[in-house]
Each structure stands twice: as structure tokens, then as C-alpha cells.
Write a structure and sequence with these properties.
Length: 633
């Protein structure tokens, strides 16, 4: 068995390592280096000068301005930093220069890129120098190939400094399962079991787990042995990942080898007890592997959720920017790990990947790991940016996911019209309505007091009965609420719900008990109109008194904007291209402009045939979410 506390001081390794990356992966590498007694050098752009990884490192070097091609992809500047600091090795993390073979000639970490080229539609067009869903498009015909080539090459150049592409056969509706390998410079190589990575959006992984529910021992061993054979065939040395597509009959097809550390490596660490960053450093220095294949266990189950600054209600996640006004990781919970590179007050900008953190839970069984993930998501406090926690929670509690019935098409199959939030069953809806009513009344009662005393000492005895109306979506729900001590009894929709709890309304977390079951709510916002946004399965609603609800019926309704004649930016970003000018006639579906945010390009098209009236943007401009781009007649 492998000791989980495997990190210890290792004499005669490197004295100083430069981390050519940013964010959570840079923090992850720095933590391991500190455990090993190795000094660290962080590189950063000017906007990242106060980033967490910069504060953690022993030294820091600015390598350029915010755009990645002038900083984190600036090979000359990073090589200058290596020479200036005397770093003996470089850890590239993932993304940026991690798979750039030219950069590898200047570092002590060996980089190789292997890919399979197959022809015949459908095909996958992808960046040869990186991954993470960037520079990747699926093409079913010649027209889509031309368009995919344009966008993929531009994204690849922006993300990795290399616009070269691969074209490979696309297998429809497969599972994406990968094998972690570890090899040294002495001809030894191990496979460290698999990771199930099928839950994806825009070809980028969202939820991963180890092991896979789908593989049997025979298939696992066959995939592992072939992955090791590949690593040995190219004399690979370090941690790497061999990716496969697996069909419904457990036939597996080689996809590519990622010659770097993967984003999802923590779940492998959880079930094997190995620190992969430590192993990479040992191998780079020339040590032999300490373990044999028979030493590699599968201890329990681990789940990883990628927490992004994204709006999950827009194409399963369009970027969101802003400053983290409140940030609290659920690390107080048992067997929960959070890998992040941000803190309260950090800015999420348009320049870099929108990942906030990797949230990892593990347990003796899959059910235990999933239950912990549900609790961890409920206890994760993020304010200031829109995030994808509602989508993550919906995925891990969906019956198809729980049963293991998944593929890379899970999200579009389960949500063909896009993610609309959790569809509340009758009992969950009553729980939510009752909780919102209890929170509303608690807020009203607190507003009547000053320093623990009633605002007017001679006021009557506190009211303990209320009639309220709650607006949830298009529905209106009348309810009666009574209070006894800390218990609210709510009659709503023909049922009775008891809600209890001693709430600190200044806290972002609101623990309560609903009909005897402990729940965790977060009040994301509330305003004077009675609108309350709760993070309870990610739902927004409004609570009004009976009188306010009656008066509200006389308020004029806001006329929705005619979106057929205007084009607004669906996200903050940079205008890459404008394809029209005033007076042009555009057809339905024709491209009007392209917006790039966080290295992903999005083509915005006309919803109808019309003449262009005005163009309010030009290439190179930065736009915000909702900004007017083009008007049509």
C-alpha cells in the first residue's frame, strides 16, 4: 500500500524550480515544491502581480503585459527569467507552453506530442499545441471544416502561441476515458488507473471521476498496458496521460497523449496516494520510480468538479468577469480538497481561463464521494461573478449520472434546449417556498430591532402569523406562516412544511432544518422589492406580503426588448472581427461579428434576413455583457 503522506523532503533534487504558469496549477506545484524543500520562482503578467501564486513563490518575475502572447506565451521572456533566477528546472503545468516542443529544448522537462490522424466525416479539428477544449471544433461537412479551421487556428494561436492544427476522426457518442502514466529515465513505466472525463461542454471537461463506472478489470488492464507501451516506445519520462474514446462495447480507440500534468490529476492522487507533481520532479532529476505496478491501488472513489466563472444558463457556460467580493472554500468539510489560485478580492478577467478552482471530494464508495460533493457545492461561497455551481450540482444529482449512463453528449442530450436550472419536483418546490418565506420573515423581524431591542419599546407583542405571496417563475403561491420559537410552519400548495434554524443573516451560509432534514442555503441577494435569490438548487424568486402582492398586480409590465433587430454581446470580451457594415444585407444565420473571451471565440449571427442599420463596435475593442454591437432595420 502507498502512504498517502508521501510528500517529504528529498535531498539532492533541484534547488530551484521555475513555474511557467499561473492560477491553481502554479499554486499546486509551489505547494509540492515547498514540501520537498525546493525554492520556487513564479512568472506573472503585469495584471497578475498580486496573484496568489506570486505571493506563494520565493521569487517572482514579471514576463510581460496581460495578453498571453506577450507574457505566459512569451518564450524569450520566460527563458530570460530562468537565466536571471538560476532556476535549474521548469514545471510548465498545463496549457500555455506545456506542450511546446521549442520551449522544451530550453527546459529540463521533456515534452512530446503524439496524435492520431484519421480522415472521413465527421472529423475533429484541434490545436496541435494544447488542449482544454481550446482550438477545437467538430466538423460534419466541408463548410464546417472551413469555418472550424479559421476559429481553431485563431484560438490555438491565442492560447498556445502555435496555430498548427490536427484533423482526426470523430467518434460520435463515446465515453472519454484516459489513463494516467508515470515513467522514468531508466525504462520503468506505470499506469495509475483511469479517469472518466465524459461530462464535457464545448469539448472541455466539466466533471471527472476516478475510477470509471464503466471499465471492468480486463479492459482497465488492457488500456493501462497499451498506454505504458506507448510511453516506453517514445522513451517518455514524466507524468503523462493517454486519452482514449471508448464505445458502448468497451472497444477503445487511441485519441492522443498529453505530455504534461492534466487539470484532473488530483482524483488520481486521491485513489492512489501518489503526489504526481513530486513524482515529476523526481523523474526530471533522474531518480527511478519508487513503486511497482502491483503497488498501485484503487482506494475508494474521487470526483472533481471544475468551478468556472461562467453563466451556465448561456450555452452551458459563457464567461463572467468581475471581482470576488466574497469567497469561501468548503475546506472545513471532511475529505474535500480545493485547488485554486485565487482569494477574496481577486479579479476574474477576460485575459485568462475562467476556472476558479477544482473542487475534489473522495470517499470509500462513489455514493459517499457524490454525497460529499453535493455538500461541498452547497457550502461553496462565491460572490462577485456568475459561476457554474448550479449546473455542477444538477449534473452530479441527475439519475443518469448517478447510474453511470453517460457519454460526451450527456449535456446536450439531457438539456437539449440548454440548461434552465433545476426543475423542481412538488416537494422540493414546497421546501424552497417555505425556506424563502422563513428567510423573508426573519429579515423583516430583524429590521424592527436595534442592538437587540425593539425599535419602539412600547410596540405591541411581536406578530407570529403572516400571509405571503411568493412569485416563482410564472407561478404565484399564496401561503400562511406561523412562528413558534425558532420554528416556522408554512402552509403552501396544499402541504405543510416546518422550517427551523438560528440564522446569522450576516453569514453567507444559512443552515436550516426542513421537515427534519438538514439543508444548507445561501442567500445570494435580496432587495427592497422582496426579490430573493437563493442558492438552493440555484433558484430565484420573490416574496411579497399579501397586500404588496395585490398592489403589484396594478404595476405595468416591462415590455421585453425586440432582440430580432439588435445584436448584443452575450458576454464580456474582445471584438475579434466585424463582418458587416451599415447598408449590408445579411441572411439568417450569417456571421455578423466574432467575440473572444478567455481564449474562446464565439461567432454571433443574424437571427433573420435584414439590412444593417448601424455598427457600434470594431475589431480590438473590449465589450461588456449586454453591450449593443449591431442594429438591424
Amino acid at each position: 500500500m502507498i502512504n498517502r503522506s508521501v510528500c517529504r523532503f528529498l535531498p539532492q533534487t533541484f534547488d530551484k524550480i521555475l513555474i511557467a504558469n499561473r492560477g491553481e496549477i502554479a499554486c499546486r506545484v509551489i505547494k509540492t515544491c515547498k514540501k520537498m524543500g525546493i525554492k520556487t520562482v513564479a512568472v506573472h503578467s503585469d495584471v497578475d502581480s498580486s496573484a496568489v501564486h506570486v505571493k506563494m513563490a520565493d521569487e517572482a518575475v514579471c514576463v510581460g503585459p496581460a495578453p498571453t502572447n506577450k507574457s505566459y506565451l512569451n518564450m524569450d521572456a520566460i527563458m530570460d527569467a530562468i537565466r536571471a533566477t538560476g532556476a535549474q528546472a521548469v514545471h510548465p503545468g498545463y496549457g500555455f507552453l506545456s506542450e511546446n516542443k521549442e520551449f522544451a529544448k530550453g527546459s529540463l522537462l521533456h515534452i512530446y506530442t503524439l496524435s492520431l490522424l484519421l480522415l472521413g466525416y465527421p472529423v475533429m479539428i484541434k490545436a496541435s499545441a494544447g488542449g482544454g477544449g481550446k482550438g477545437m471544433r467538430i466538423s460534419w461537412n466541408d463548410e464546417e471544416t472551413r469555418e472550424g479551421f479559421r476559429f481553431s487556428s485563431q484560438e490555438a494561436a491565442s492560447s498556445f502561441g502555435d496555430d498548427r492544427l490536427l484533423i482526426e476522426k470523430y467518434i460520435d457518442n463515446p465515453r472519454h476515458i484516459e489513463i494516467q502514466v508515470l515513467a522514468d529515465k531508466h525504462g520503468n513505466a506505470l499506469w495509475l488507473n483511469e479517469r472518466e472525463c465524459s461530462i464535457q461542454r464545448r469539448n472541455q471537461k466539466v466533471v471527472e471521476e476516478a475510477p470509471s463506472t464503466f471499465l471492468d478489470p480486463t479492459t482497465r488492464r488492457a488500456m493501462g498496458e497499451q498506454a505504458v507501451q506507448l510511453a516506453k516506445a517514445v522513451q517518455y519520462s514524466s507524468a503523462g496521460t493517454v486519452e482514449f474514446l471508448v464505445d458502448s462495447n468497451r472497444n477503445f480507440y487511441f485519441l492522443e497523449m498529453n505530455t504534461r500534468l492534466q487539470v484532473e490529476h488530483p482524483i488520481t492522487e486521491c485513489i492512489t496516494g501518489l503526489d504526481l507533481v513530486e513524482q515529476m520532479i523526481r523523474v526530471a532529476k533522474g531518480y527511478q520510480l519508487k513503486h511497482k505496478q502491483e503497488d498501485i491501488p484503487i482506494n475508494g472513489w474521487a470526483i472533481e468538479s471544475r468551478v468556472y466563472a461562467e453563466d451556465p444558463y448561456k450555452s452551458f457556460g459563457l464567461p463572467s468577469i468581475g471581482r470576488l467580493s466574497q469567497y469561501q472554500e468548503p475546506i472545513n468539510l471532511s475529505k474535500v480538497r480545493v485547488d485554486s489560485g485565487i482569494q477574496e478580492g481577486s479579479d476574474i478577467s477576460i485575459y485568462y481561463d475562467p476556472m476558479i478552482s477544482k473542487l475534489v471530494t473522495y470517499g470509500a464508495t462513489r455514493a459517499e464521494a457524490l454525497a460529499r460533493m453535493e455538500d461541498a457545492l452547497d457550502n461553496y461561497v462565491i460572490r462577485g461573478v456568475t459561476h457554474n455551481i448550479p449546473l455542477l450540482r444538477e449534473i452530479i444529482t441527475h439519475p443518469r449520472f448517478i447510474s453511470g449512463d453517460i457519454s460526451t453528449n450527456f449535456l446536450p442530450e439531457v438539456y437539449p434546449d440548454g440548461f434552465k436550472g433545476h426543475q423542481l419536483e412538488a416537494d422540493k418546490r414546497r421546501e424552497l417556498l417555505a425556506s424563502a418565506a422563513a428567510l423573508y420573515i426573519t429579515t423583516q423581524l430583524r429590521s424592527q430591532k436595534v442592538l437587540g431591542s425593539l425599535r419602539v419599546p412600547s410596540s405591541p407583542i411581536e406578530c407570529n402569523h403572516w400571509e405571503l405571496c411568493v412569485e416563482l417563475g410564472e407561478g404565484h403561491h399564496s401561503m400562511e406562516v406561523t412562528k413558534s420559537g425558532n420554528v416556522y410552519t408554512v402552509e403552501v400548495d396544499g402541504g405543510k412544511v416546518e422550517v427551523s434554524g438560528q440564522w446569522n443573516l450576516a453569514s453567507p451560509l444559512l443552515p436550516l432544518t426542513i421537515n427534519g432534514t438538514d439543508r444548507m442555503l445561501q442567500c445570494l441577494s435580496r432587495d427592497a422589492s422582496g426579490r430573493i435569490v437563493l442558492q438552493y438548487l440555484g433558484t430565484s424568486l420573490r416574496v411579497l406580503s399579501k397586500l404588496a402582492a395585490e398592489l403589484n398586480s396594478y404595476m405595468p409590465e416591462k415590455v421585453p426588448e425586440d432582440t430580432s433587430s439588435i445584436l448584443r454581446s452575450p458576454m464580456p470580451g474582445t471584438v475579434v472581427a466585424v463582418s458587416v457594415k451599415p447598408g449590408d444585407t445579411v441572411a439568417e444565420g450569417q456571421e455578423i461579428c466574432v467575440i473572444e473571451a478567455m481564449k474562446m471565440q464565439n461567432s454571433l449571427t443574424a437571427v433573420r434576413q435584414a439590412k444593417v442599420k448601424n455598427v457600434h463596435c470594431k475589431p480590438g475593442e473590449t465589450v461588456g455583457e449586454g453591450d449593443l454591437l449591431v442594429e438591424l432595420e
